[in-house]
Structures are given as structure tokens and as C-alpha cells.
Amino acid sequence: MQAQTEWWRGATIYQVYPRSFMDSNGDGIGDLPGVTSKLDHIASLGVDAIWLSPFFLSPMADFGYDISDFTQVDPIFGTISDFDALVDKAHELGLKVIIDQIYSHTSDQHKWFEESRVSRDNSKSDWYVWADANPDGTPPNNWQSVFGMGAWQWDARRGQYYLHNFLAEQPDLNLHNPDVQNAVLDVARFWMDRGVDGFRLDALNFGMHDPELRDNPVETIFKRPPTRPFDFQRHTRSMSHPDLPEFIAKIRQVTDSYPDRFTVAEVGGPFPLTEMKAFTEGETHLNSAYAFDFLYADEINADLIRSTQADWPGGPGEGWPSWAFSNHDAPRAVSRWQGDCETDQYSKLIALLLLSLRGNVFIYQGEELGLPQAEVPFEKLQDPEAIVNWPETLGRDGARTPLPWTDKGNDYSGFSTQEPWLPLTEAHSDKAVTLQNETPDSVLNFYRNIIALRQSSEALRQGEIAFLQTDKDLLAFTRKHEGEEKLCLFNLTNRPLLFEQAVGNILASVGDPIKKRVIPAYSGFIAG
User: Catalytic residues, which ones?
Assistant: First the structure.
């Protein structure tokens, strides 16, 4: 294993979704100067780094994940000088800066695609995934897109179909082509030259397809009831090609040519563990990866924590895991899991749990305030996935509404002077940053205290994890590193549970105190 000295090992990383963080120019959309103006808030949490969701030039068909130029800042977010200023300020505050990289697809307005679609024999004709129609004019195979439609779009200019695993406006790059690989690696160099400390690699396992374009087999095992055509297939052909780790090794070579850089992959799909291990294996692949174990889970319980942690025992050559309970793609965890527990208490409980796990921790903006999922009426929806699948899925807009900086005395809670791109809710304004700053036992101040505890403990940052034999519904484990040990106890149920061992000195807690070795409902403790 690597020496335990990397800044990112066990790091706490704060995700910023720029559209909804802070609007500096009064157009209702958050921007980079807005982020810079609020970096002091992020630094006050005690986190190690920020992760910025896309701010690149884009037609915004998928709100920035459809990129028309990888090296330009979209004007709605500011300028490249604004980005440089953000990096400088973050570094002054001791914050690393991680940004998204999206190598699986571009916008259909990217200059690469505009050239590729002109003919079948131009210099970029093979930069995207093109295929002839079947003899009856139908698409080449049965592949389906994530967003609820076929994954092939007819293009009259070339007289062929092109592949899009997401929106039709997001054609898939052909990463089997070495020229495409070199082009996106140059993008990575461009941003590291500007001081970026690492990358979150979006939808990485969508990066390579089966060149023979064979049909996907039918899916027969479902973690949850299918809601889209995409769910009815096992995506062994349209994504996750075995050559992908070889390309990932090239990414690692580039990032290793700069000091102290960090890479983490997003790996989707119902059974992502094998790919996560392959993407992070040894010293020649990515540093870390995360899946959707928690992000789409309808409930959280002791078994889920035990199973996900057991997947990463820390053996030779194994990568390092990352964990997130919420992000811009998933409904907020507190609303998914809280049951009959009070919102602030439950927000603190899952914060304590997340920050006690072995691996890196991602905190999504607003989690530190205990924000519940916002209700966005149909006529206000912006998310293309939510609109297509409404009302069967919650969509992503309810987790993307603007942050409340001041209380409801300000019409837009200090986020903007104009109506925001997504509506604010009164339930969020009541949890504004200014209000919580002044309340010692607020969710916000609890996050600060727990992050400080984790940062002061090598056992919590990078120690081994071992589970204790208890009632199956009680979560009990130790974190150990070089003689330091912490005991972590969590009752995620709505009834009291027994714990027969002595607990010791409690360093952090949520819920009612332990009495006569009874762990109260919805409670958590770290002792040491």
C-alpha cells in the first residue's frame, strides 16, 4: 500500500454546485465569483477541499454536463480570470480545488462533434461513436439511454446514427481512439496548469463501448423497480469495456506528472464494485472511486454500512473508497431516510455516521445546514430527467435549489437579488447560514465540531475499521491507527437497542444519552 501521507487520504471534501451556491451578479444563477465570496464559509467547516461541479462552456441542455468547450468558462459562471481568482483564494484558505472532468461525451455543439458529423472521412470522423442503420432503418442495436429513450440519434448529414448514453445533445466520445484519449488528457493538463488539485471523473464507466455494437442482454435482477427503458437492460455492451482501465492508467500517468494531485471516479450501475476496484487498483490507476450505494438507497441501516465497508478491507493493491450520502444527482439523504425522526437530529446523526467511515467523505452543499429535499412543482422543473420521468421519479431539482444564506426577511434568502433559476422554499430559509451561525447547537455548528474531531484523529481519517458483534440492528465498530482507537456506535432505528460493552469517554454524540447500556433510538456516539 501507499505511504499514508497523501493529503487526500481520509479527506473531507465539500461539493459546490455553482448554479445554486451564490449569485454575485443578480441574474438568478450562481457563479464563480459567488463561490469565491463564500469560500470563508466552506473553510470554516474545516474541510480539506472543494469539488466544483461543471462550470465549462455549455448550451446547458443538461446544466453543464453537455460541454461545448472543455477549457472555457461559461459566461453565466464568469471568466477564466474568475476561476483563477477562486483557486487563489481557496489555496490561501488552505482548501484544495477539485473539478469535474467529463470524458465520456460532449455537447453536440462542441467543435469536435461539428467536424465529426460533416462526413465519414474527415480528421475527426472517428472521434464519436457512429454506426449505420439496420436494413430497415432502425438503430444499430437495442441500447437505451439513461434519460429514458433510445441511445441512438439519426444524423442526416452523415447518414448514420450516433451514440448518446445520456441526452441526444450529448454524443458519446469514442475513447477507443488514441487521438481522443490524447485530446482529453490535454484538457487535464490545461486545468492542472491553472492550479487544480484533482479531478472527479464523471460517468467514467460510460467511457468505452463494445466496438462490435452487440445488443445488451436483458436485466433480470433489480435493486429497485425499473422506471425507465434503461433499467431493463444489463449494460455490458454499451459501457464498461474491459479496455477502460488501460485508459485510466494514462490518466494516472498525467496526474502523477504534477505533485499531490487526486483523482476520484464516479461509477454508476447496479453492481459497480468490480469496476471500482479495477479503476483504483495499485499505483497505476485512480486514487479513489465512489458509487451510488447510499445516494439512491431508500433507507440506511446497519447491514448496508457493514456490507459497503466490508467491500474495502484494505488489502494489498486495493484502492481507497469515497462515500457520499447526498449530491446533485440524488434526493437529499435526510428526506429519504429520516422516518419519524426530527430533521435536525437526523441530519446530525447521518453526519456523525458519514464522518466516522473509512474512506474519503463528500459533503454536498446544504447538508451542513440539514436541508431537506425541496419540493419543486412541475411547472418549475428544469431537470430533463425529472421532466421526462415525472412523476415517477423525484428527479434532481429538489437537491439543486439555491442555498439559503440569510433568513426569509430577504426574498431570495441572500442567494440573489433576482428570482433564482430554481425556487427557494421557506423550509430552507428557516435553516439559513446566518441563523445557524448564531445557534451553538445548530446542524451547521455540529458539522464544524465533528469535522474537527475527524481531522484531529488519524484513527478516524485513515484507520482500520472493525465491526463488533452486537444486535444486528445496532451498528458498532472501531477505528484504529497506530495505537489510537475510537469506538463508534449508531442506532439508526426508531427503538432502543442494547449494547453490553462499556463505552468509555464520549467525544461526540447525537440523541439522548446512553443509560444502563441502552442505546436510544436515532442516536450515535463516538468514544475514545
Answer: 202, 266
